[in-house]
Predict the structure.
Amino acid sequence: MHDLVIRNANLVDGTGAPGRIADIGIDGSVISAVGSDVEAGKREIDAKGQLVTPGFVDIHTHYDGQATWDPELSPSSWHGVTTAVCGNCGVGFAPARPDKHEWLIQLMEGVEDIPGSALADGIDWQWETFPQFLDALEQMPRTMDIACQVPHGPVRAYVMGERGARNEEATPEDLEAMAEIVKEGIEAGALGFSTSRTKLHRALDGEVVPGTFAADQEMVALGEAVADAGGGVVEVVSDIGTGGMRGDFSGDMELMREIANQYDLTVLYSLHQSDPTPEDWRELLAMSSAPLSGSGKVIAQVSGRPIGLLLGLETSLHQFLKHPSYMAIAHLPLAERVSEMRKPEVREKILSEQTTFTGRFTEDIVHGFHKMYLLGEEPNYEPDASDCIKACAERENKSPYEYAYDLLIGNNGKNLLFFPLFEFSYQTLDPTFERLQHEGTILGLGDGGAHCRLICDSSLPTFMLTHWTRDRTKGHKLSIEEVIKLQTLDTATIYGLSDRGSIQVGKKADINIIDYDGLSIDAPKMIYDLPTGAPRLLQEPNGYKATIVSGQVVRENGEFTGVRPGVVIRGRR
């Protein structure tokens, strides 16, 4: 008898092949049979009428800290993710000298908006080196598998101290020491190396991430270290992916192509559609997709929905945050604050004041009413232009500030205003559709575990199914087979995880059983459940009947079973 059998599955196996009805036999952690003649199981699950897929492989998360205290890695585990890759964007917590713990926390808090108090209270620093970090992660039984990359920022600070933190140029001795750390990390099991080259990423003190201005020879040396240790991904988050904010973006592209070509590596870079230059992504994609002479490749990592900021009275940004009269009541609990804001005299005073925000970037967001929307209880991530706050306010003969104010205090202060920062320049996801279908892209950028008080995109795996295969009404859809492959076999393959990503005999038994017709995503809510009671935005799905990791049911009908077969992945497979 098989250990577990899933019967009558509407199977979409991750390969892109047409869906079919099949049974699946599982023995231990491995799929042992797929077809119509599968023998009995010690336990059987009847999946008739249910969509059965491989577990989702999310390649862009920031669970580096949370993974040290949270065995369930929510919310990603709620959304069918069975493998999460962390260590992205050049930030993380290893290597870490004892006197750099607070600095690394401030770096992560500044770049990824993860509450520093939660990190300081939650992380038990049982490591200094990167291999020791992996060893520490292995001490905790966990629901899903987690993989790590070696982040540039901590490496630079470990070797160069303050010089590295201030982005001074590395000496030959620095390069040799950093390369050795990267090589050691890959040999210990890291799947790659990540770096940040965007001025958008800043520590809490306003300094850009170490490595942002690293010279080409530093990047080449660290790419060579990855290759020498056996290979892996080099992930680059660059300003070229945010609309070419540094002007000519050809330099970074040439550098990435050189690393990929010279060392036969896969280089990932983040690609966005940015409002100031909404067509740049086409040129970038053409450049990165041009053939290399070797077997290396440069791949654009893209999102499947707008990367959207959520403005609200509980989040870290809204229009009136820096109005003096609001600042005077900002310390009050939410209910009391809303009660004050509803008073006509308080409303009038706040609305009459000028903001004290500084910086064009933030001002463009808080005043961007032409592409700002009420998210609502049934969140719509491809809203119509006629539903923006500017248009709604005009219909009601209000200023957009008045209209936004009244929305913010509605729903007892829990309403959220959605501002698509990237991927929505033309107020349509048609360009996103083009990018998702391009052979030179890979799906990612959900940022699970990060941007706790401003962004909630970790529901991306569920959104890909609900919006792109079922609910979209404004343009082309994707097939279920395409969407499943995008976030299973494709993402597993890019990181060399050939043991998962498809439901085939011999593959790891990571599986989702989904009520496709009933699949939905709730509105994001602010929950205060991080260490020290720190907040994070969470978005729950409906419709996941079961998630299986290594042949064991870890989540069933929306509840964790308590079984924890997840492991720390050690190297490409």
The two ends are 28 Å apart (CA to CA). Residues 338 and 413 are 6 Å apart (CA to CA). Residues 310-422 form one domain.
